[in-house]
Design a protein that fits this description.
The protein is α/β, with parallel strands linked by helices and 417 residues long. The protein has a domain of 206 residues: Rossmann fold (3-Layer(aba) Sandwich). It is 35% helix and 15% strand. The structure holds ligand F0G. Ligand F0G binds next to helix 4, helix 9 and helix 13.
């Protein structure tokens, strides 16, 4: 295992700088190059399933169960786990019809220990921090990364410092960081500014845990492993996820590339990234077919988790989208609220940022960008209780439009009421 530049045109190998985040040659983000697993894919698939019956705490984690594709080796008692990753794939009921799809499933990553997908990466990030003897970890956050880091750091006995944009984090997420005992620094400005501040403050003694940390990305990859296992390794046509700082898009792309290269899957599902209209630098660049991302100085959306104007993993995400022949779209705050209500009415619920997935799917279906027969999994990234102020403010009055998209390119209208 070693660190290398994530840009394949550079691919510089980085030696002797275990905590480096950027390529010293070209400045792009680093990634971990792991050894190819020695076992046959079918043998590994069976072993991963069998581990579900094991009492080893690593096997009880839906992340470490897939450790052949994770960094390490770490001693079993070094692994900091809260039993994360074992979340269900829930078939969408009337929600599927609402966005004109016959086969839609929600993988609810919000049903992780701290209510968010961040736990998948944090168990690996904090394990690595502990392995290296770090005494303090830090991150900038719109709330979820902070809560997750605070919880796992508390388990590991490491001090946690979180940098949050002042007044722009939901009370529930802030409460979690407080509860887990993190030290909180409020930064004037948005998430992008908070990230600048924490990066500037990082000294050699501080272990840094935003998603530009390549160890975190490795853990987040396992959302794809467990999804494909749940589908008996028959990939869906599309996997949809919200886009903020774009670490998760990078992780999903890396997972799919590794699974394909090692013979676990033949077909690669297409990634669809959905952003909020007010914080949509990737969607804009995608529409303009631009190679350059124009950062947004004042990103604005009520889906505060993804209120990000300058996504750091943009290059990695673009490569993931190209590799999977993906798509990008953006949705308004009204569309997010309506989609969130729909997910709630299906008895599932999620936080606003997660509802971008359904809102985006409906929009893409209405445009005819995907057919009603497509098999689709939407990743719900955060729990419904992550932003209860939003629910009180918005969801009491939201009207969910009856019926389905009425666009002319829709082959078949599916009634949901
Ligand atoms: N969904 C939720 C619920 C999130 O909290 C985030 C990011 C995203 C989606 C976007 O993921 O950044 O990998 O593209 N939250 C970060 C945080 C920024 O600080 O909690 P991404």
């Amino acid at each position: 295992m070693y660190l290398r530049c994530s840009n394949p045109d550079c691919a510089a190998r980085v030696e002797g700088q275990d905590r480096a985040l950027q390529c010293p040659r070209c400045g792009d983000l680093l990634e971990l190059a792991l050894g190819v697993p020695l076992l046959d894919p079918e043998v590994l698939k069976r072993m991963w399933l069998e581990r579900r019956c094991s009492f080893d705490p690593r096997d009880g984690s839906g992340v470490w169960r897939f450790r052949e594709f994770l960094p390490g080796p770490y001693a079993p008692d070094e692994v900091v786990t809260l039993g994360e990753g074992n979340v269900p794939l829930v078939p969408a009921g009337k929600t599927a019809a609402w966005c004109g799809l016959k086969a839609l499933g929600f993988k609810h990553l919000g049903w992780n220990p701290t209510g968010c997908f961040k736990d998948l990466g944090m168990t690996v990030g904090i394990t690595d921090a502990k392995h290296r003897g770090a005494r303090e970890v830090a991150c900038a956050s719109t709330g979820n990364t902070a809560a997750s880091m605070a919880a796992y750091a508390a388990r590991a006995g490491i001090k946690a410092r979180v940098y949050l944009p002042a007044g722009a984090v939901s009370t529930n997420k802030l409460a979690q960081s407080l509860d887990y005992g993190a030290e909180i620094e409020e930064v004037e400005g948005n998430f992008d500014r908070a990230l600048q501040v924490v990066l500037a403050s990082a000294g050699p003694e501080l272990y840094f845990l935003n998603s530009i940390n390549p160890y975190r990305i490795e853990g987040q990859k396992t959302a794809i492993f467990s999804l494909l296992e749940q589908l008996q390794w028959r990939p869906p046509d599309y996997i949809v996820l919200p886009g903020g700082n774009l670490g998760n898009t990078a992780a999903f792309g890396k997972a799919l590339a590794e699974l394909k290269a090692n013979g676990f899957i033949e077909k690669v599902p297409r990634l669809i990234v959905i952003q909020a209209e007010g914080a949509n630098p990737l969607a804009r660049a995608w529409k303009a077919k631009s190679e350059e991302l124009q950062p947004m100085a004042e990103p604005e959306t009520e889906a505060t988790a993804i209120r990000i104007g300058s996504p750091r993993s943009w290059n990695k995400a673009l490569r993931a989208l190209r590799f999977t022949d993906g798509m990008v779209a953006d949705v308004s705050d009204e569309e997010i609220s309506e989609a969130k209500a729909m997910i709630g009415r299906d008895g599932i619920g999620c936080e606003p940022a997660s509802a971008t997935t359904l809102a985006g799917l409906r929009k893409l279906r209405c445009r005819g960008a995907l057919g009603s027969d497509a098999t689709v999994v939407a990743m719900l990234t955060g729990h419904a209780l992550k932003d209860t102020d939003y629910i009180a403010r918005r969801q009491a009055t939201v009207q969910v439009a009856a019926g389905v998209c009425v666009a002319p390119r829709m082959e078949r209208a599916v009634q949901w009421k």
